[in-house]
Amino acid sequence: MKNPINFLRTVKQELFKITWPTKKETLMGSITVIVLAVIASLFFLLLDQIFKTGLNFLIGY
C-alpha cells in the first residue's frame, strides 16, 4: 500500500458496488433458516428417541 489516498478511493468505489438485500429477501432468508433449524432439531430429537428405545431394549430396561 504505497498511496493511502488511492486506497481509500478504491474502497469507496467498491462500497458503491454493494447490493444489499431488500427487506423481503432478508425476512424470507431468516424465516427459511428458522424453519430449517426447527426441522433439523425435530429430526435429531426423533433419532435420539429411536436410539434410546433401541438401547433400552438391548440392555433390558
Strand residue content: under 5%
Rg from Cα: 25 Å
Task: Specify the structural class.
Answer: mainly alpha
Could you spell the SSE succession in H and E letters?
Answer: HH
- End-to-end span in angstroms? 70 Å
**Low-pLDDT residue intervals, each spanning 5 or more residues:** none
**Average pLDDT over all residues:** 94
Q: How many DSSP E strands?
A: 0
Q: State the oligomer.
A: single chain
Largest sheet: none
Shape: elongated
Total helices: the number is 2
Helix percentage range: over 70%
List keywords for this structure.
mainly alpha; 2 helices; single chain; 61 residues
Can you characterise this structure?
The chain is mainly α and 61 residues long. The chain is built from two helices and no strands. It has helices at residues 4-16, 23-59.
List the helices and strands and how they pair.
Elements (H helix, E strand, L loop, with lengths): L3 H13 L6 H37 L2
Would you summarize the structure shown here?
By secondary structure, this protein is mainly α.
